[in-house]
Amino acid sequence: MQPEMKRMSVYIHIPYCVRKCAYCDFLSFPDASPDSLTQTGKEYKKALLKELELTARKYPDRIVDTVFFGGGTPSHMSAFDIADIMDALRALFPFSDDTEVSLEANPGTVDEEKLRVYKDAGINRLSFGLQSSHDKELKILGRIHVFDDFVRSLELAEMAGFKNINADLMSALPGQTVKDWEDVLRTAVSFKILKHISAYSLIIEEGTAFYERYKDGGLPSEEADREMYHVTREVLESYGYERYEISNYAKPGYECRHNLVYWNRGDYIGLGLGASSCMDEVRFTNTSDIRKYMELTDLAGIRESVEELDDDGIRFEKVMLGLRLTEGIDESELLSGAEGLTEKFYREQIEKNISLGLLVRENGRIKLTDEGLDLADHVIMDFCNRFT
Fold this sequence. Notes:
globular, three-stranded antiparallel β-sheet, about 25% strand
């Protein structure tokens, strides 16, 4: 009798982009030359396929439920290289009947041929990094596209037969008003083909061009940022998008299954430079050294960090990740196996935050209230104090 196949998700990191955005701190390399990218992309693909082969040997009992090509800008890489990676993945792992396969794309970096190749390769979900519908804001962000590029990319995707498409949007930009942001939202929802919208506030990270430019001010006030956050929910929910995570909204049935694996602490393997994984309660991260990665001969040689989670670590992750979801966490599962001070602490934090109106208990689950969603980081850090 064959052992039951365990489900897992696969993240594939493509670290190339045309140009580094001013706010970006992701592990990516600008490479505007198609000729140069063709060569480096081939070398990177070769290393990725090697890592994939070694991974398949280590996890022979797995079935792939979701795949996500992230970056960088995966759509900047050759579509045929993306198809080769998909072919190798299918050859090494069985796929579930309805595997979700997402690919991040920058508006203006797809054409009819690329989209056809993606579709033929099994990609069935696209995520466009729109960020704003205002060209002046896109220029401030350092994006390579204008709004018309997004409109054309959507048209091409629809003609190619894609039905599951996300747009990333970003609020609290330099000089942006609440009215500006509402206009961006209303413009986005006017495209009926968009089934999912991710809406994030700009975060200024050290080491980025934006950090040097705005570390001393120049961004919308905290009050304006909070108002934009509330406007996001009001506008998107009025158009039938349901919030299922703090920053993610979807038409019913179009939630991003891959990201739900992260928030529900499912097993996922990260392939590529700097990619993170969590398999069987062990977290590990690949090296961010491109030369070291390109020369990989075994998996141990590219691991930058490995952490085996204990019961307390698992329990805290359930809070940290699960409370981001509007459905919350199963309370009995959270406290299962907890003993002594740990159980006492969690019960106290749950009751405390319920009394403050930040958590609510419903049908055996605990979840953030509307006010709690506004103060999610505060609530989560309250639980974190158990480990400091």
